[in-house]
Amino acid sequence: MSLLIVGLILFLGMHSVRIVAEPWRRAMIARLGEGAWKGAYSLLSAAGLALIVFGYGQARLEPVALWDPPVAMRHLASLLTLVAFLLLAAAYVPGNQIKSRLHHPMVLGVKTWALAHLLANGTLADLLLFGGFLLWAVADFRAARLRDRADGTVYLAGHAGRTAAAVLIGGALWALFAFWAHAALFGVRPFG
Questions:
Q1: Where are the domains of the chain?
Q2: pTM attached to this predicted model
Q3: What are the Cα distances from residue 101, in Å, to 22, 80, 98, 155?
Q4: Mean pLDDT calculated for residue range 28-41
């Protein structure tokens, strides 16, 4: 469990610098250069992610049950995960209406993904992993919206065709993940 916790601190800590220390972040970028900052950020984030994956896998070998979610939560989690994939796709398809309206769909997708997994899983490792990501996403979304207001960020209106593309891509990725990749990567079949 300790590797999971260290990984979460490292990964979410790196991803929280803009939330809690934006002036320090800007000073470090100015001092080190953007490339060096991104390189260090990426290396530390990758190390944190590796620790999360390994630590969570180890914690699943000896689960500490906290609650027993009803079966209905798995169905709700599947629906919420579909929404999370649609939001994730909307973050990368330029000019879509979802991003135009919500502004930060990736963070909202992480929030939805984490909530879905908290509803469907009831171990201590699940609470740490998905609860940690949920708390981070709530804080990050708030910080991003405050930055948008402070910077006067304007999001251009999206186009229906690009929105449809985001929905199709997100839906296809969700289906691929739900029916194949989740079991292949994590040994858990969401629909099995």
A1: 1-62, 65-192
A2: 0.90
A3: 25, 19, 5, 8
A4: 94
